[in-house]
Amino acid sequence: MERFFLGAGLVLGGLMLLSLYRGVFGPTVLDRLMGVNAIGSKTVVLLVIIGVLYRRVDMFVDIALAYALLNFIAVLAASRYFQKRKGLRGNPQQRAAPRPREGT
Amino acid sequence: MVDALVVGLVAGGLVFFAGGTVGILRLPDFYSRLHPAGKLDTAGSVLAMSGLALFALLPISLDSVLTSLKILLIVVIVFLTSPTATHAIVDAGVRAGLEPWKKDKGEPSP
Questions:
Q1: Is A53 on the interface with B (CB under 8 A)?
Q2: pLDDT of residue B98
Q3: Which residues contact A82 (CB under 8 A, 6 or more apart)?
Q4: Does residue B85 belong to any structural domain of this protein?
Q5: What are the tens digits of pLDDT across the range A9-25?
Q6: Backbone angles phi, psi at A103, to 5 degrees
Q7: Could you tell me which residues come within 8 angstroms of residue B8 by beta carbon, excluding any fewer than 6 positions away?
Q8: CB-based contact A39:A19 (threshold 8 Å)
Q9: What secondary structure does DSSP assign to A9-48, as a single string?
Q10: Spatial separation of the C-alpha atoms in residues B52 and A46, rounded to whole Å
Q11: End-to-end CA distance of chain A
């Protein structure tokens, strides 16, 4: 059972590394934000798995809970902030198109 | 018996996570990439956390029951917050005027 949880944690780590590609090379800022959000939602599960491996689930559950809330707040605040930024589009031929804007 | 159930639940969660990661990497557009990011990560979290809560319950005592309830609380929070965060990212994209990808329009973005 220990071995299984170790393997599950390693697979989760590999999936987080794959999601990091979208976080680094994403064409727009919002793609990077999405990659970071995917990594965060995997980290919550990984923290509980680490707690099972260390036989201290009662402590790591609290850390995972705090991390879930922090991830949510960070993504919400960043998405509210980056909607006003210019240069959001990675595709340069779309940049000339008129951008619909709502009230300031 | 319970161990087999735990292994099945956590492995199912990993399968959902892998599908979400493949969707994030391979789909052509920002909006279509958010679709696996929003749903499959939530489903994978719920499955894997259910398996871990069942594993933490195994020697039944007051502490282990409380720990399992906390893990289920994380499941509830993830179920509430993950679609909300995805919706916030989609809303930011719509407000910034990102065009949805069309097949005849151009190359799929990397």
A1: no
A2: 76
A3: A29, A30, A33, A88, B92, B96
A4: yes
A5: 999 999 999 999 999 98
A6: -60, 150
A7: B51
A8: yes
A9: HHHHHHHHHHHHHHHHH-SSHHHHHHHHHHHHHHHHHHHH
A10: 11
A11: 56
Sequence-distant (≥ 6) Cβ neighbours of residue A38 within 8 angstroms:
A19, A22, B20, B21, B24, B37, B41
- Minimal Cβ distance to A44: which of B34, B45, B98: B45
CB A20 within 8 A of CB A71: no
Res. A94: pLDDT tops 70: no
How many other C-beta atoms can be found within 10 angstroms of the C-beta atom of residue A14? 12
- Residues 31 to 50 of A: which have CB under 8 A from any B CB? 31, 33-35, 37-38, 41-42, 44-45, 48-49
Asked if the model's pLDDT at residue B58 lies above 90, the reply is: no
User: Nearest residue of B to residue A58 by CA position?
Assistant: B67
Nearest CA in chain A to B70: A61
Tokens of B87: 């919706």
* pLDDT per residue as tens digits for the range B70-79: 999 999 999 9
Instruction: Return the residue matching tokens 């994978």.
Output: B44
ipTM associated with this complex? 0.86
